[in-house]
Design brief:
By secondary structure, the chain is mainly beta. It has a domain at about 1-30. It contains four helices and 40 strands. Strands 1-6-7-8-9 form a five-stranded antiparallel β-sheet, with no helix packed on it. A five-stranded mixed β-sheet has the order 2-38-39-40-3, with no helix packed on it. Strands 10-11-12-13 form a four-stranded antiparallel β-sheet, with no helix packed on it. The longest helix has 26 residues, at about 1-25.
Length: about 500
């Protein structure tokens, strides 16, 4: 009997080991995994979840009051707090001279000014006022007073431009999380006389870095874990181990628990290049984290065993066919809304479309898809911005210059409005007002109290410079905070 029990236990352990190895191989570049095949493994876990359904559309935390990250929470579905301005004017502009620097693209040095995609500032309430934190193209993170535009603390310099949004620690630790094109994603302490780097993650630490060493995506911090992907093509889960020392100063002792390659042999064979990076910001729901890469693969990692075994195994894989840099948006049912660019013009992109709704619990996850072709003289099509979820509608701006109102249940375009190309600024909705920036320096405000019908214009406000508003605006208590490509950062509100 003991022999049979031991044999049964051995067989069970062997089967578990085989399954684990197969699963790992399928997620780390196995030639056996086919990019054409959509893969999913059952429903999203519900035990000890990282993100609950009732956390969709609300701030990520009530510990820190404010907009602490890109799109406000882990499902990327909260955009700020009203009221929205009704008679907008520039209240202040920062700084005195344009924020510009040089960064190399390929081998060509280019001048970058202001803030760009995705570039949404964080806005948080402190005991002595509102602090606005933004990374910009002058290679710095700036800490500004929301009322006056003056510097609240010294800027934090990096070695290259900053394209993405910073993350303020949602649990109240005086910490900031930010990436740069200088190769590093950083954890920065804010309880010192100057913002101080405590730790950094190198994009070159991966075994086979892919595209480049930039960090465009906006990290998510939940339960002492940091989730972030890099343009090296790898996705990371980091245990932060946040604490205070004996002097009351914040400290971290990060452990990289997961390094997951977002590419595999079949993807590289299908796209016939190695331009695979992660520029999208991760989104979480239940016990799962989702992200996409520039090869067009949407990944879902199962976090059910992360806390007890530091494992995050792939359970979902879907190929959009083309560069997917927009962040995934997740609704209260766990449905994914995925926007892709149109650059490679391959058969897969034509088959599935550039805006899709996916159900990660189904073997065939595609619920619907919409083709968003190029137009307006633009050589490329599709979507760069992250859609906004509002009620049963999805608001999307396209590269060619269209603002779409899409029924999220059916995928039917209920209405559309023209915009100048390229429209990369992500739309936001606060107080039933849809706010969209364009590349002629105009902020458009629409009344979406009836979101299914074409919305009337409430107001339009043009920057004096007419510079492209590529960044995503942040709305907080009567003010709009946004950067532009003229080199300046603006506070806009009622006088």
């Amino acid at each position: 009997m003991k022999l049979r029990a031991r044999l049964a236990a051995f067989v069970a352990l062997l089967l578990v080991a085989v399954f684990w190895l197969v699963a790992r191989r399928a997620g780390t570049g196995s030639p056996q995994s086919r990019v054409e095949a959509d893969t999913a493994r059952g429903p999203i876990g519900i035990e000890a979840v990282f993100v609950r359904a009732d956390q969709v559309g609300v701030p990520i935390s009530d510990t820190v009051v404010g907009l602490t990250m890109f799109r406000g929470n882990a499902t990327r579905t909260w955009y700020g707090q009203g009221p929205m301005p009704r008679n907008p004017a520039v209240l202040w502009r920062y700084p005195r001279r344009p924020m510009c620097s040089t960064s190399v693209v390929g081998r060509e040095p280019l001048i970058w000014c202001g803030s760009g995609w995705t570039g949404q500032p964080s806005v948080v309430e402190r005991g002595d006022g509102v602090e606005v934190i933004v990374g910009t193209y002058d290679r710095s993170i700036h800490f500004l007073d929301g009322a006056t535009g003056r510097e609240r603390r010294p800027s934090f310099p990096t070695g290259d431009i900053i394209k993405g949004s910073v993350t303020v620690d949602p649990d109240g630790f005086p910490l900031l999380y930010a990436g740069s094109r200088d190769n590093y994603y950083r954890v920065i302490a804010l309880d010192r006389p100057r913002p101080t780097e405590l730790w950094r993650l190198s994009a070159r630490d991966a075994p086979h870095p892919m595209w480049n060493d930039d960090w465009d995506g906006n990290g998510v911090v939940i339960d002492d874990y940091l989730f972030e992907g890099g343009e090296n093509g790898w996705f990371y889960v980091v245990r932060l181990n946040r604490r205070y020392d004996e002097h009351g100063m914040v400290q971290v002792a990060p452990q990289v628990l997961v390094r997951f390659p977002s590419f595999d042999d079949s993807l590289l064979a299908a796209i016939r290049d190695r331009e695979v990076s992660i520029e999208s910001s991760p989104a979480l729901f239940g016990n799962s984290v989702f992200f996409a890469n520039s090869g067009g693969v949407v990944w879902g990692l199962d976090l059910s065993h992360l806390r007890d075994s530091s494992l995050a195994e792939p359970f979902f894989r879907y190929w959009t066919g083309d560069d997917t840099d927009a962040s995934i948006v997740i609704d209260e049912e766990g449905m994914l809304y995925v926007a892709s660019e149109q650059q490679r013009f391959n058969a897969r992109g034509r088959e599935v479309g550039q805006l899709q709704k996916l159900d990660p619990s189904r073997a065939n996850p595609r619920v619907w898809g919409i083709a968003i072709p190029r137009g307006g003289g633009e050589p490329l099509g599709g979507v760069w911005s992250t859609p906004a979820l509002f009620g049963h509608m999805l608001f999307v701006t396209t590269n060619s210059g269209r603002l779409l109102g899409v029924d999220r249940d059916s995928g039917v375009i209920r209405w559309e409005k023209p915009l100048p190309p390229h429209a990369w600024s992500s739309p936001v909705v606060v107080d039933s007002v849809l706010l969209v920036g364009d590349c002629e320096g105009v902020l458009h405000a629409y009344d979406v109290r009836r979101p299914e019908v074409e919305p009337p214009v409430l107001w339009e406000f043009r920057l004096e410079s007419g510079a492209c508003i590529e960044s995503t605006p942040a709305v907080w208590k009567g003010r709009i905070y946004v950067g532009a490509r003229d080199g300046y950062f603006y506070a806009i509100g009622d006088r």
